[in-house]
Amino acid sequence: MCDQTFLVNVFGSCDKCFKQRALRPVFKKSQQLSYCSTCAEIMATEGLRENETLASLKSEAESLKGKLEEERAKLHDVELHQVAERVEALGQFVMKTRRTLKGHGNKVLCMDWCKDKRRIVSSSQDGKVIVWDSFTTNKEHAVTMPCTWVMACAYAPSGCAIACGGLDNKCSVYPLTFDKNENMAAKKKSVAMHTNYLSACSFTNSDMQILTASGDGTCALWDVESGQLLQSFHGHGADVLCLDLAPSETGNTFVSGGCDKKAMVWDMRSGQCVQAFETHESDINSVRYYPSGDAFASGSDDATCRLYDLRADREVAIYSKESIIFGASSVDFSLSGRLLFAGYNDYTINVWDVLKGSRVSILFGHENRVSTLRVSPDGTAFCSGSWDHTLRVWA
Amino acid sequence: QNSGLQRMTFFFLIEDIITKMQDDKTGGVPIRTVKSFLSKIPSVVTGTDVVQWLMKNLSIEDPVEAIHLGSLIAAQGYIFPISDHVLTMKDDGTFYRFQAPYFWPSNCWEPENTDYAIYLCKRTMQNKARLELADYEAENLARLQRAFARKWEFIFMQAEAQVKIDRKKDKTERKILDSQERAFWDVHRPVPGCVNTTEMDIRKCRRLKNPQKVKKSVYGVTEESQSQSPVHVLSQPIRKTTKEDIRKQITFLNAQIDRHCLKMSKVAESLIAYTEQYMEYDPLITPAEPSNPWISDDVALWDIEMSKEPSQQRVKRWGFSFDEILKDQVGRDQFLRFLESEFSSENLRFWLAVQDLKKQPLQDVAKRVEEIWQEFLAPGAPSAINLDSHSYEITSQNVKDGGRYTFEDAQEHIYKLMKSDSYARFLRSNAYQDLLLAKKKPESEQGRRTSLEKFTRSVMHKSTTRITGLIMEIMGA
Questions:
Q1: How far is B67 from B61, CA to CA, in rounded Å?
Q2: Mean of pLDDT values over B158-175
């Protein structure tokens, strides 16, 4: 004969879910209750959660990261530049400065094109924001911000307003008036409020909404008219330095880059991060979508530019050279996406063959860091702004 | 996590290059003592040697690039011309000297004006031609004398002390040290008009190494009035990662693992295909016709694009994807006209209305939502669109809240419907085909369009075979 223990099954109403189940005794804060097995399980795991240490969570996250990398690596069957070997090589490139815009009294920090393909807005360290007809090089408007280091500026889609901000932690909108008697600063509207410097701003496809990025580690979407916050985007672990809206007609996403070395893709409706990329070794100063919207490029202080594809959820190309040791401050694609223009802190602009990964050309001209660079809306030229106080239009 | 570290990494990178350059065991540049008249010039290299070394060791093909990099390394303060305050590199026999590690930028020098005053002052105390002040230095000294009028005695004393220390050193060593000291000040107090490489991007300032550290003096001077390194009012305590943060991260990672991704080979094909299709439209690769305004100073290209008559090339582009025709105003109008002729324009008008809704200021959103509902979706709507019941359910629920994204689901459905149905038919339609083939315009408007016609004819001539192929494809489809 052997000892046998029998589990006595009591049937009844569970004290938690009230369903008629086989019950077992559980102790909650020294009180005995009767739970069904499901509720008992849940309670057990909850208890486990309470005991989870930061360390155990971190190690779980690490192992998931490892698994994710494994899964992605399985799909990494070839390199872009290998497949691109069959693509015809580009001819010799002769790109020159076609216009030089002089007028800023200090470092140019940011610029943006108007949809009319010729006007631009630029901002500088001394607080000046200037609107130019860059084709004629005439200055059309100028306003002095109450703060220095105006690091962000943007042209409204209608061409009737500009937005800018910097050390004032705000993004302000100025309607552009052609009335010589009107003071532009008088109609200024404060839209965004961050708790640290404004690093980037962009209108969505309307004059009525602005997307901002800030040194406070967040991005935010604002209603221009009311100044109301429509959505905020949290996730970066440090200053956000740049952003770019996806070019799709129906899309509601944008990408941001920050000092946490991450590039993050966001859903504007929900405020959630939908994809993240962390392969750079230093601050990401600039992000720009590839024209189809399926990929984006980044420029970083680690002296490289990289291409990330959203469908592969992976970095697909690195643009770097042993002789390039200064950080890349701003990047943009040519219309077809074949060329990537990148401005660097070594005063040069490197032109990269996006598909083949090679450098096509190096452009000298600026006498100090290139801080901002954008291709014109119809791709006929690109404009660069520099710490040498000037802007140049190249074609 | 901090850009101070990155800044140091950057300096270490240059220091690595500089160290290798001086290492004769591994093919560094020859550092020599050069005889000149009655004296010797100790420890110098030529610009050519530096440029050659950079080209060889950093795989630089173009000497212009190597010269530029050499100039930048000089401007940072790691190598300097012995006879010039301006820190550049030339590809010739000009002599350069390497900077002493004591003065390297990686030591995070932020020398105060008191140090600079001491330096300029001691230069004037020594009767040596090579130590004579340049004009801008004399001006600086005069300004400093005015600014530090009350403590000039102190500065003078420090300068005297430095001169005493310097005198004790070997003559050759003095020559070298003097030049290195001068080069240090050329970095921190550059010649007017030269780039000050110590200027920093303010966004990166606050996370520097030791932002609170008291500035150290080049000459070991300590005084009560020594200021702290300016801490810009940007410092923010870095938020510690919480358990909640990591839990969110775990949820995110799990979602990513579940994501269906494409193989690299497919992605590469797609990127190549897109780029190849658009290369002829890329003015920086394929010269624009009639010309690129920035190059020719002629705005003909922009005038043509502004006109209501689209070029053949532009019309062809509408066929690349549905998005292409939607983002071109003229294309949209043509498409709308086509739909109107078929009495099926409500879908496009709905899509456009929803796009417009998303552009409205917050206060107008609710009103527009109601208007769109009434026009397109309410029972008995004048421009009723055809939605499946599931989508209709979701939309009528959303309308109650009346937000900007009320019609997202419906818009997506209508988009897919138009793309697979009306868009495809439009591309096959006579209206589109006529535009594609740039059929001759009626006589009355001919005069005004001569230049346009010449242009479209020239484009057509080039693309005839391609257009024919395209038509064959569409016809066969």
A1: 11
A2: 93
CB A339 within 8 A of CB B287: no
Q: How far is CA B321 from CA A247, B194, B276, B335, B423, in A?
A: 14, 51, 14, 13, 9
CA angle B318, B323, B324 (to 5 degrees): 30
**How far is it, in rounded angstroms, from Cα A16 to Cα A217?**
42
Same domain, B153 and B79: no
Residue linked to tokens 């090679």: A358
What DSSP state is assigned to residue B452? Answer: H
Of B195, B202, B284, the CB nearest to A149: B202
* ipTM of the prediction: 0.88
Q: Which residues pair with A218 in a beta bridge?
A: A234
CA distance B299 to B282: 17
What CATH number corresponds to the domain at position A163?
2.130.10.10
Per the model's pLDDT, the better-predicted residue between A64 and A250 turns out to be: A64
User: Rounded distance, CA B452 to CA A221, Å?
Assistant: 43
- Is the dihedral angle over the CA atoms A95, A96, A100, A106 positive or is it negative? positive
Q: Residue B66 corresponds to which amino acid?
A: A
A133 and A38 share one domain: no
Average pLDDT, chain A: 93
Residues of B in contact with A237 (CB under 8 A): 1, 239, 241
Phi, psi angles (nearest 5°) of residue A354 = -55, -40
Minimal C-alpha gap between A182 and chain B (Å): 25
Domain co-membership, B47 together with B162: no
Answer whether residue A89 is part of any domain. no
Q: How confident is the model at residue A1 (pLDDT cuts 50, 70, 90)?
A: very low
How far is the C-alpha of B232 from the C-alpha of B212, rounded, in Å? 10
Greatest Cα pair distance in chain B = 105
Burial class of residue B2 (count of CB atoms within 10 Å of its CB; 0-12, 13-18, 19+): middle
Residues linked to residue A170 through DSSP beta bridges, in sequence order: A193
Q: Which residues pair with A139 in a beta bridge?
A: A132
- A contacts of B358 (beta carbons < 8 Å): 205-206
CB of B225 within 8 Å of a chain A CB? The answer is no
Whether residue B278 and residue A337 make contact (CB cut-off 8 A), yes or no, is yes
B287 — pLDDT class (breaks 50, 70, 90): very high
Distance in angstroms (rounded) separating the CA atoms of residues B374 and B397: 15
Secondary element (H or E) of residue B347:
helix B346-358
- The residues, ordered by sequence, that sit 6+ positions from B103 with a Cβ below 8 Å of its Cβ are B77, B109, B180, B181, B183, B184
In a shared domain, residues B333 and B398: yes
Nearest to B92 by CA among B35, B51, B55, B61: B51
The C-alpha of A80 sits at a distance from chain B's nearest C-alpha, in angstroms, of 5
DSSP 8-state secondary structure symbol assigned to residue B445:
G
How many separate helices (H) and strands (E) can be counted in chain B?
A: 22, 4
- Domain span at B30: 1-107
